[in-house]
Amino acid sequence: HRDLHSFPTRRSSDLFCNMVAAVDYAVEHGMDRRAAERAAGIILCAERNYICVNRFPYTSGHVMVVPYEHQASLAALPQGTAREMMDLAQRSERAQTELYHPDGFNFGLNLGKSAGAGVAGHVHLHALPRWTGDTNFLTVVSETRILPEDFFVTWERMRRALGVDGPSGAGPNL
């Protein structure tokens, strides 16, 4: 299979819209959907939102819930989309608890560049498992993160825990 990055996807300047467009384009041009979602880091696709792995995580298991609709604020989202976002956050918490056994969680929305949003124009909810003492010197001083888990390992584990792939590795992505 071709790498997902080899497909032309710059339909907008928005990372989250392009992730979905890249998967759709890759599938339309012969790539297996699971392989395309894996390459993009999309764990689960629901009706109005999807869950993806954060490519620049603060902790192992750091995922995001992202609406398909491009909106800059939570208030601009339709109620059904916002409700589903919270439902998926709850599912993420249960899966992360089962997989990572954290001491706590951070769930957060950074709305706008001044609030720390890396992608300021597309609202998204971060879901991070946390452990006592998980902040280290490198993170605080140089914004360098050392993670014990690979991006694709997180994708596989979360996908299984969320019930996307059945025991055979092929299941519905609802």
Write the layout of secondary structure elements.
Elements: H1 15-28, H2 33-40, E1 42-45, E2 49-53, E3 63-67, H3 79-100, E4 104-108, E5 125-130, H4 137-142, H5 151-161
Antiparallel strand pairs: 1-2, 2-3, 3-5, 4-5
Helix pairs in contact: 1-2
> What is the averaged pLDDT score?
84
By DSSP, the count of extended strands is 5
Q: Regions with pLDDT < 50 over 5+ consecutive residues?
A: 167-174
Which geometry do the CA atoms define?
globular
Give the SSE order as H and E letters: HHEEEHEEHH
Helix content: 25-40%
Beta-strand residue fraction: 5-15%
Q: Which value, in Å, is the CA radius of gyration?
A: 16 Å
Return the structural class. Answer: alpha+beta
Number of helices: 5
Kindly report the oligomeric state of this protein.
single chain
Biggest sheet layout: 5 strands, antiparallel
**Strand numbers in spatial order across the main sheet:** 1-2-3-5-4
- How far the N terminus sits from the C terminus, by CA atoms, comes to 24 Å
Task: Explain the overall architecture.
The protein is α+β, with helices and mostly antiparallel strands. Helices cover 35% and strands 14% of the residues. A 5-stranded antiparallel sheet has the order 1-2-3-5-4, sandwiched between helices. Helix 1 runs antiparallel to helix 2.
